[in-house]
Amino acid sequence: MMPDIKSLTLEELKAEAAAMGEQPFRAKQLYQWMHVKLARSFDEMTNLPLTFREKCRSYFAYTALKAVQVQESALDGTKKYLFELADGKLIESVWMKYKHGNSVCISSQAGCRMGCAFCASTIGGLERNLTPSEMLDQIYAITLLTGERVSNVVVMGCGEPLDNYENLLKFLTLLTDENGLHISQRSITVSTCGLTEKMRLLADEKLQITLALSLHAAFDEKRRELMPVANRYTIAELMEACAYYFEKTGRRITFEYSLIRGFNDGERDAKALAAQIRRLNCHVNLIPVNPVNERDFVQPDAAKVAVFKNNLEKNGINVTIRREMGRDIDGACGQLRRRQRKFYQG
Ligand code: SAH
Q1: Helix (H, G, I), strand (E, B) or coil at 281
Q2: Domains of the chain: which residue ranges?
Q3: CA 120 to ligand 1: nearest atom
Q4: Which of 42, 48, 79, 136 has its CA 20 to 30 A from that of 58?
Q5: With respect to CATH, is domain 5-59 assigned 3.40.50.2300?
């Protein structure tokens, strides 16, 4: 198989160039075209000799995602992109405009095998892992399409990033590389359903990225009803892994908690949640559950959400309520992709 050129580090690219009998500066030029000028093909690399470009075409595969659908929210300008990969698989990414800069939410897998009960991304199972270049290219394509710089990246789209660990790390290396787009590590968040071995491995990398943990319940039995992964790891084990992450990186953990009416939104839940996480340097993001067609979860009303937040705060926990972006455009993970697949498959 031809090497995927946009997934190579500059060092790896230099080694490839040497193997091709080319000078190291050619690697640097290619890298800049791909990761700074965001070229969509070798053809765009106009200052490279035509013969060299042709040689590259025969050596390397070149990732350039195709936007097949864009939805723009009339409420807040959020844009949701449906991208087609080279093998025809579909993924989605979201562009959000905030006061402090533009944020892109990317997918790490086509589909997902974690099986969370409330999530649309997992309904058809895992199709495949995304390559580092396919993760990067979601950001590159959106930068080109919007004409605006991306300042924050969240890996919270379809898929479980820590279930695609090696590619995720490579993606993070390329995204933060000073020779590339050079996004600061502190502007990146990776969200996981809680694969503790991988959380520890990531901690050992000592990156300055934020780790978000999808908790959604403060009792193991309840968590198991929502998330099959909770059968593998207890909340106590998750908390140990979070403490380890903080110890190694000094980065505060974010807990994500989707509020589901009548299921995990009571006072008892808030108290148990506070008790579970109190010892950690952390922050809670409350997300009123996004209704998904195939699922019958309902959001608590705003007053109930406020009470839940208040209960956590009384117990000394930092809380924010996630602003819902793009409610009118299939905001919840995986919904656009599902709709499109139905459309294709009838
Ligand atoms: N697999 C990773 C990242 C993808 S999901 C993880 O589990 O964290 C990103 C976040 O959206 C997770 O917290 C996930 O639990 C949440 N989520 C998925 N479907 C949702 C829905 N319908 N409503 C609210 N949050 C949802």
Answers
A1: coil
A2: 5-59, 66-345
A3: 19
A4: 136
A5: no
> What is the whole-number distance in angstroms between the Cα of residue 27 and the centre of ligand 1?
38
Indicate the pTM of the whole model.
Answer: 0.95
Mutate to test the pocket of ligand 1, among 155, 256, 335 (most ligand atoms within 8 A of CB): 256
Residues 6+ apart with CB under 8 A from 247: 203
Extract the tokens encoding 34.
Answer: 């791909």
Fold of 66-345: TIM Barrel (3.20.20)
Could you tell me whether strands 79-84 and 66-72 are parallel, antiparallel, or unpaired per DSSP bridges?
antiparallel
- In this predicted structure, the answer to whether residue 345 has a pLDDT above a threshold of 50 is no
Ligand 1 atom closest to residue 191's alpha carbon, by position in its atom list: 8
The predicted-structure confidence for 182-200, as pLDDT tens digits, reads as follows: 999 999 999 999 999 999 9
Question: Hey, what are 130's tokens?
Answer: 């995304």
Measure 192 CA to ligand 1 centroid, in angstroms.
9
146: how many CB neighbours lie within 10 A of its CB?
16
The Å distance, Cα 160 to ligand 1 centre, comes to: 9
333 catalytically annotated: yes
